[in-house]
Protein: Phosphate transporter
Organism: Roseibium polysiphoniae
Amino acid sequence: MSRYKKPTLDKDLDKISYMEEATTSLGRGLMAPGAGLLFIVLCGIVAGAYVLGAPSGGVIVAASAIGAYMALNIGANDVANNVGPAVGAKAMSLTTALVIAAIFESAGALLAGGDVVDTISMGIIDPAAVADTRIFTAAMMAALVSAALWINMATWFGAPVSTTHAIVGGVMGAGIAASGFSSVNWLMLSGIAMSWVFSPLVGGLVAAFFLWFIKAFIVYQDDKIAAARRWVPVLIAVMAGTFAAYLAVKGVSHVVTIELSTALVAGGVVAVLAWMVTRPLIARQSQGLENRNQSLRKLFAIPLVCSAALLSFAHGANDVANAVGPLAAIVHTAEFGDVAESVAIPLWVMAVGALGISFGLLLFGPRLINMVGRQITKLNPMRAYCVALSAATTVIIASGLGLPVSSTHITVGAVFGVGFFREWYTERSERRLDFLNEGEGGKAKRVRPVRNREEQARRKLLRRAHFMTTLAAWMVTVPASAMLSGILFFLMAAIL
């Protein structure tokens, strides 16, 4: 039979098969960018219908497309911090996380995103420096483009960065290009610079503290289930109260102003109610569980899913302004011909930001979600719980001190804090060593000492490469976006 075989035809068929597989693979890779481009075009069409016949309609259409691009990048990069730990802990699947985050991000943006936004982000630039409408429009467009490009590049390299800091850098660079260094509020920028150090450091310390508490009072107890019945309701109550205060301070701040003291009182009431409700539930849920760590993780799964939803809601309410704030300012300036310090946000502009963040998350978010949740350090529900609680706690602490902080820096700093604490606790904790030497469940274990540097490096529980990449991205976000915005300002000014 072999004499009738046609090797030339077989080779040709193999080539065609390989070509089809390559085409299919390439098509899959282009689906997300193609869908993102379609969304940007649709936003431009909607804006064109809104300003049909207006003399500055072209500027509004271009700004809408840029705002949609910015919103897509916020969803691709920033939202990963809210759901990444829960996905890494396997409390929910990636698909479930994407759906929950998209729903709550949109709800936060549309319901609590606010009707009015400041045109000069966080008071960085003196309004008199950009009083001319043409200069102001060019500055806002340059800030949007530079921030979006920087976030896009950071997402490409797998680095979670602060979108707020990116837009701050963009506004600063455009302001300097427009009227010099004297137009910048350097005192405000110094406060933002303090947050670069404050927020990730405090986030890491708070997360490490809660992880230490869980290990000391639950994990390394002889009867883990009895300890869990005692302390897990307390921990859930602390989370519920903290998130209640967090949402009061950050989540609905654009709709109604709530003092920090009032938010703390409300959080205390919610904590007590949560403890009363969860205590019998945890007692019932823990019945029949084996006395092992795997059983404990089941008790933290549902609170972790709720925390991811609440973090997404608060993020949508606050960070949608990064996309639609400059866009709303451009629309107001084009329509009324003046530069206002604060402007109303049209519903269609808010929809661009809300839908853009959700689509960006669905199309491009999985990469950063996997990086934050799985690649920095290994997370389980207990560790992810510490990360989520740290994010809310640190924001409340910063609000009390009057410091502007980044939710991205806090959450990622908390993940790093958990990883570093795991390394320290694994190598130096006498309680853990005694527990292992005595034996868990009656079986003695021998703790093997680290014999050389290679083995010690292999046992590191936190990937240093991700730590250095993220730290470098944080340090250069503001200056990089500022330099890019300054260059783009002259281009925009020449076009407009």
